[in-house]
Hints:
By secondary structure, the protein is of the alpha+beta class. It has helices spanning 89-97, 100-103, 118-130, 135-142, 172-178, 203-216, 243-249; strands spanning 3-8, 16-21, 38-47, 60-68, 71-76, 109-111, 144-153, 183-186, 191-197, 226-231.
Amino acid sequence: RWCEFSVGVPPSGRTSFFMEPVMHTTTSRPDAQHPQPINEVARVAIALPEDTSFYSDQRFIAVAFDASADGVTHEILGASRPTLPFLAGYEIFSKLCGDRAIRTVDGALRANGETITPERYLGLWRIAISQPLTPPRFTERYGYAAYAVLGGQFDGLRGKRKSWSSSPFETFDDFEAAHRDRIEYLDDGRCFRIELDLRLTHAARDAFYLESFLSSAGQCEGSDTSIVLKSVDPSRTPSAKTPSAQSDLFTPIAEAA
Length: 257
């Protein structure tokens, strides 16, 4: 058979269906020449507030969850670039088409253990983007909290005026005053690091405009800028070691037309 149905029951108890073509092949133990395929079991678009950036389009943090015998890991799309991966929808698809979607062609990336065409794989992401989660809802659903982590050197930043007219901070000093309790002062006060919990009001916005100060001071390249997912509710943290944990993580859904 070339196709089969996979039926799942989400935590709500409502049964839904996920249909993918299944290629029945014989696999051997993975080695250096034949590595274990990536098994993507969930994908989430975290919707950031409208005031996150100067740009008018919706911004997301795109997270792919991959399962293996050792557990479930996550990949944040765009995390390799030296700026915060606050992506517009078209940027998400650009990242996917340049990496993960290509891997589906030869089965190096699968969806819930099944082979999938690039078109259907991108269709799953279209559904995720059309049904995004807010940062608090993401924590409730998956047990992780998303933090924006940034850092730099005070030299060249203090007194720096804003680059964007929409910034609520006229100067970097205003940002420092607003977040003094959250800033970690390092290297005898010459450097700093800050973690902004994106569940909090204006946290994504403040991270974006702090990054603009760093950029205008020439400190983005090599700076401590990233999105970090922290497990805040271990009871909800997914595990691939039991079937129930994986089914909790991956809620089958009807494929987009």
